[in-house]
Amino acid sequence: MNPSLSCDVIVIGAGASGLSAAIEAADAGARVIVLEKNPMPGGSSRLSVGSINAAGSSLQKRAGIVDTPDEHFADMDHFMGPFAGKDNLALRRLLVDHAAESLEWLISLGLSFYGPTADPPHRHPRMHNVLPNSRAYPYYLNRAAKARGVDVRLDAPVLQILRDGHSGVRGVLARMGGQSVEVEARSGVVLAAGDYSNDPELKQRFRPELARIPAINPTATGDGHKLGEALGARVINGEVVFGPGLRFMEPTRPNLVRRLPPSWLLGKLMQWALDHLPASLFRPFVMSFMTASMGPEASLLRAGAVLVNREGQRFVDELVQPGLAIAQQPGGHAWLVFDSRVATMFSGPPHYVSTAPGVAFAYVPDYQRHRPDLYHRADSLEALAGRVGLPGDALRATIESRNAALPEGVAGGVLQAPFHALGPLESRIVITDGGLAVTERHQVLGADGGVIPRLYAAGAVGQGGALLAGNGHHIGWAVTSGRRAGRFAAQEPRRL
Ligand SMILES: Cc1cc2nc3c(=O)[nH]c(=O)nc-3n(C[C@H](O)[C@H](O)[C@H](O)COP(=O)(O)OP(=O)(O)OC[C@H]3O[C@@H](n4cnc5c(N)ncnc54)[C@H](O)[C@@H]3O)c2cc1C
Q: Is 50 close to ligand 1, i.e. is its CB under 6 Å away?
């Protein structure tokens, strides 16, 4: 007999969607237990840039911007690319209708946002960027959940959802303190376990060529998708994967600003400084936390930067899916090598090395100043190779043959000293968009097309075929769907 616990609503996962669900369920009068497999809350929400696109927010009104959910709905068409026609438009409607309300709710819990900033092809500035960074999501949501008496259990992976004949889901089996514990849910269970960007099995099924490429979030292993599938649920749009993207290695030790708690005061201070101080004064401060987790823009490759591997060899046409090729290089690492022409070009607007959309841009001097572990410069290719730790002869031969292969009159090449290198770069899957099929009340659908009673899904695992391309739609969805799923689960009649 397993030891047991009981409550009204169980939430599986303490990311943005799960904690939002828990808060709403508690506000609706339910006793709530959140089970989180990691030692800290946050999931991908904690690792994100943190932007939310929303139409009709108080920040937009303050800036005199008139915007509507209808316009937001229409603008999302521009981001669908090859997946146009596969979107779940009913869920997109839900997102745009509730995004501003979700944002205001987050602000009411203590979060600060900067913006709105322009994010074309959105027709109005509607991107709101969290301050001081995305760690503010788990910090404030967890705090609000605890203030409402929610029991948040960490290191508590859910292994199975327990079903009771046709009366639906009755609880879960979780691992806590080295034991299997049965947790009973009198009203319902909300699956909020994130995506499968780091699960080789699900990626093999939907996008086999990406199966072995690691994700930014190593614990995004599609547990929620598998728990749902075990009850007959099915995954929609599993092939929609963001990445592989090029990322610079994380600093071994986070800088001071990333170590500061993402408090209200720091958020407000940054909000004020972004609004009032000249950009030149404030940028170094913003950059010092932004350049912690960034990838280079494709424009740097188009301008002539060359990708080389640990052996100093070029291994790919830089403009054709370099992410796939980087994953196959020794150690999975690559470096960008460029000359003073490209370095000068990418030292100021409009050419930036990387960006956190809307907040700030990072140029070559920012990397030189804030990421000396990534940036190297030397007067000769051999000296540059020595600084990076690459074989000098090989690097020189690679660059010479690259320069010689450029057609006459075509700009590019790595010709003018001093020479620069940025890296190591890795290739990472960012997120996956495949979610379980759900109703507009976020109830999970079973094999027969009917709802699995008392089982709800929110956030990435509850995406239900909604395509959230473009910046700032995933967190808006996580919070909106989480709040709704938590509330609906709490409203289920309690089992005897
Ligand atoms: C680098 C990066 C940048 C991004 N930037 C943005 C952005 O600016 N704007 C935007 O809108 N979106 C962004 N996204 C996407 C966005 O962060 C996610 O889609 C969103 O946060 C997902 O929220 P979630 O609650 O569904 O999942 P998560 O935040 O991943 O939470 C899921 C939680 O469930 C837990 N869990 C999983 N399995 C179990 C189990 N078996 N038992 C118990 N707990 C479990 C996990 O540990 C995790 O804590 C970004 C993502 C990345 C990786």
A: yes
Strands, DSSP E only, in 292-414? 306-308, 334-338, 354-356, 360-362, 375-378
Ligand 1, atom 13, lies closest to the CA of 48
Q: pLDDT tens across 485-495, in order?
A: 999 999 999 98
* Number of domains composing the chain: 2
Higher-scoring residue by pLDDT: 167, 439: 439
> Ligand 1 centre and the CA of 9: distance in Å?
21
Instruction: Count other C-beta atoms under 10 Å from residue 397's C-beta.
Output: 15
**SS3 breakdown of the chain: % helix, strand, coil, rounded to 5?**
40, 20, 40
CA dihedral (46, 259, 289, 17) in degrees, to 10, reads 10
Q: Give the separation between CA 36 and CA 18, rounded to whole angstroms.
A: 9
The pTM (predicted TM-score) of the whole model is: 0.91
> 140 lies in which domain range?
4-242+430-490
Cβ-based neighbours of 14, under 8 Å, separated by 6 or more: 22, 34, 36, 38, 41, 42, 43, 138, 142, 152, 154
**221 and 261 both lie in a single domain:** no
Looking up tokens 């027969």 gives 448
The answer to whether 49 touches 95, Cβ cutoff 8 Å, is no
CA distance linking residue 468 with residue 57, whole number of Å: 19
User: Which amino acid type is present at position 147?
Assistant: A
Write out pLDDT tens, residues 412-430.
Answer: 788 899 999 999 999 999 9
Whether residues 257 and 119 share a domain: the answer is no
